[in-house]
Amino acid sequence: MKSAVVAREFEERGWKFGAGQSERNGVLPPTRRKRCGRNANECRFEDMSESLRREFDAVDRTTDPNDFVKYLDTTRATNFFQQIKRHMLELLELRAGESAADLGCGTGEDARAMAERLGPRGRAVGVDLSATMIAKARERREADRARESGAEFLQADVQRLPFVDESFDAIRAERVLQHTPDADAAIREMVRVAKRGGRIVIWEGDLDLFIIDAEDYETSRAMQRFICDGFRHGDIGHRLYRRFLECGLEDVRAIPLVGRFTDFKLIENAFDLPAAVERAVGQKLIDRERAARWLESLRQAARAERFFSAIGGFITFGRKG
Fold first, then answer.
1. Are 203 and 238 in contact (CB under 8 A)?
2. Cβ contacts of residue 116 below 8 Å, gap of 6+?
3. Rounded distance, CA 192 to CA 205, Å?
4. pLDDT tens per residue, range 249-258
5. Strand 249-261 vs strand 168-174: parallel, antiparallel, or unpaired?
6. pLDDT digits over 42-71, tens only?
7. Cross-strand partners of 200
8. Burial class (CB in 10 A: 0-12, 13-18, 19+), 5
9. How far apart are CA 292 and CA 274, in angstroms?
10. How far is CA 308 from CA 110, 133, 161, 303, in A?
11. Average pLDDT for residues 4-33, to the nearest whole number?
């Protein structure tokens, strides 16, 4: 596809995802679908709107909230996120009979995994702002009674948790703070509800560590910055170490992890690259023709099986003194 054709594609499809469209009638743009092959790393996304990446704090207002469920299912199945989840579970140091919370629990798989380790005398609570996610978590818990998971699920805001002080021995949160309006308030709430000696473990991707390899490095760099800034807190991953210390947590550690991706379609759609490019052009951050050439160069790299991208992030651990 020639660069001029790509430029016309932007105009013909009318890619404009500004706040006015997102907020019209209280409904966010429709999300798109994904398909997965047998291999967990062969997942493909198709036509997911920007709301799928940037509006997890408004899942229930989208035209199809279940697309967010499918997105979580897809990413959870990848080797990268399986590695993250295993490492987080180890850091939580769960013991039978303890209490633990998964904040931003989504469809509840991690809360149920914690419940298994805590045993029948323990307590595992999954919290999510979305009624859709909580309903799906409860549905899956009931469908998986063979595991005898005693996980509870509660709709609540991580910025204002409905628990008394020192309620939990362990708290986890994954991909939550990047979407949370007041991330500092959420961290303070985690510290408040943690018991003395309690463990807090958070994973956040860091889009300051987002790489898209292209010959036009300048445009790649501009788009990385633009995509990062499109999230509420796209760079929060590397900021958690300092914030944990500022909250008085002890034994603070930040563990870097990097996922590498050679599937262009996954990156293209996970970050809505065509729409993101059009927004960047509209804000005069990059020239339209140069942007079109850059996007086409990525597609050519994919066809030649030499596309490469990487995304980094941090698991941050702290213990309440």
1. no
2. 147, 149
3. 24
4. 999 999 999 9
5. unpaired
6. 333 333 334 344 455 556 555 566 677 777
7. 171, 318
8. exposed
9. 9
10. 30, 32, 40, 12
11. 31
Structure tokens at 140: 């899956």
CA-wise closest residue to 130 among 61, 34, 73, 178: 61
| Ranges of each domain in the chain | 3-320
CATH number 3.50.50.60 is the correct assignment for the domain at 3-320: no
pLDDT at site 125: 98
| φ, ψ (nearest 5 deg) of residue 130 | -90, 125
Six token digits for residue 115: 């419940």
For residue 232, report the phi and psi dihedrals to the nearest 5 degrees: -60, -45
Place of tokens 């509800």: 193
Question: What CA–CA distance (Å, rounded) separates 265 from 274?
Answer: 11
Q: What is the pLDDT of residue 9?
A: 34
Among residues 141, 134, 201, which one has the least CA distance to residue 169? 201
Report the predicted TM-score, pTM, of the whole model to 2 decimal places: 0.79
Rounded mean pLDDT, 110-130: 95
How many angstroms separate the CA atoms of 2 and 66, rounded?
36
Closest among 261, 265, 269 to 48, alpha carbons compared = 269
Amino acid type, 178: Q
User: What per-residue confidence (pLDDT) applies to 63?
Assistant: 54
Residue 52's pLDDT is 40
